[in-house]
């Protein structure tokens, strides 16, 4: 009788008799994967280093030039300043009217940011939590607003604001900024409110809370990461807005920082006051940089919260 030879027992590398490890049959596979991972790691870190240099170097050069004299900027543009001189900062703040532009920008962006978050969160909560006829139509109307080029709206917007007496006014610019920022805010917060648990809102309603109280005291605090994230994005967009104030706000006394920087680059360029120009540039840039540094963890948390739930 012919018998079948019993194959030799597998080497017990995994601790379980007869079971092979994943790489036990392919010598060098683990070493190859480690090598590929090392190459990708070096490549990704190299790209990040190059990107960081491209961002940090111009920023550092602008800040450094703001503390130097015009002669030092031209003679030794890459050298560190001999001493920290704040004369250029004073000229930019007082003589170039950056203080007035800064105050106008704070008023416009502060008012529009509060209005955008309040109105956007209320609209997003209703669209995300309540089913009613036209719900999806209104939602897609907001979403469609993100794809509408602002250039096409400038001429009719100018005449509408002129007829309503809102041209060259701070509150008129606030209303325009709110309308401009609402589509993205509603789109972002609607997705965020859908990720929040419905049981919490139902428990509040069972305890006797009204819909208004449930929204402001229960659901809105739960949406804090999303509010901070969309608030930062709106702050960056509204602070750097140039097209809308240029068309709708032509009063020199009510210019915002973006308009002031253009005026400053023209006037200081003719005067040859490049240190004052760099100082004004840094003054306009510092609030945006500070806001992102302070709230960067909340921005990342808000963007990833919806994906983790």
What does this structure look like?
This protein is mostly helical. It is 74% helix and 0% strand. It is built from 13 helices and no strands. The chain has helices at 29-66, 70-75, 87-95, 98-129, 135-146, 150-163, 170-195, 198-206, 211-222, 224-239, 243-248, 257-271, 274-308. The protein starts with 28 loop residues before the first helix and ends with a helix.
Q: Secondary-structure element order, as H and E? A: HHHHHHHHHHHHH
The residue-averaged pLDDT reads: 82
Q: Based on the structure, what is the oligomeric state of the protein chains?
A: single chain
Radius of gyration, in Å, reads 29 Å
Structural class designation: mainly alpha
What is the overall number of helices?
13
Helix content: over 70%
What descriptors fit this protein?
single chain, 13 helices, 309 residues, disordered N terminus, mainly alpha
Q: How is the topology of this model organized?
A:
Layout: H1 29-66, H2 70-75, H3 87-95, H4 98-129, H5 135-146, H6 150-163, H7 170-195, H8 198-206, H9 211-222, H10 224-239, H11 243-248, H12 257-271, H13 274-308
Concise account of the structure shown:
With 309 residues, the chain is mainly α. 74% of the residues lie in helices and 0% in strands.
